[in-house]
């Protein structure tokens, strides 16, 4: 059973908001460290395609947990922020479950909004690893901040 996203965005403005969020992701300095790209696939959903390479491996030759967290948090965050057009959200908590190691190759993190409409939103995400199997899943809590999205250069264009 899936939740119905709030009618916070007019259909005509939603696509522009999604494209600005994608630009915001690409503008973040931290994302220069990752071979990744985002797509807001609809209200309350986001997909990040990323490359797992040896630069993200721990000593046992699989992806370090920091990569899992980064991609899960971002996918859930952008899924939630796709429903909020005025403010930047902040992650206040994130619960992560590792289900299998990721080796080198292409992976996908998919996020979806679960609940919340005003101040706090909840979203989850999962990663499909290079082997085609689920590698991790997590759930985040996101708080509406005082930061206007329009004040962020990456969002404003």
UniProtKB/TrEMBL annotation:
<dbReference type="Pfam" id="PF03061">
    <property type="entry name" value="4HBT"/>
</dbReference>
<feature type="domain" description="Thioesterase">
    <location>
        <begin position="62"/>
        <end position="135"/>
    </location>
</feature>
<dbReference type="InterPro" id="IPR029069">
    <property type="entry name" value="HotDog_dom_sf"/>
</dbReference>
<protein>
    <submittedName>
        <fullName>PaaI family thioesterase</fullName>
    </submittedName>
</protein>
<dbReference type="InterPro" id="IPR006683">
    <property type="entry name" value="Thioestr_dom"/>
</dbReference>
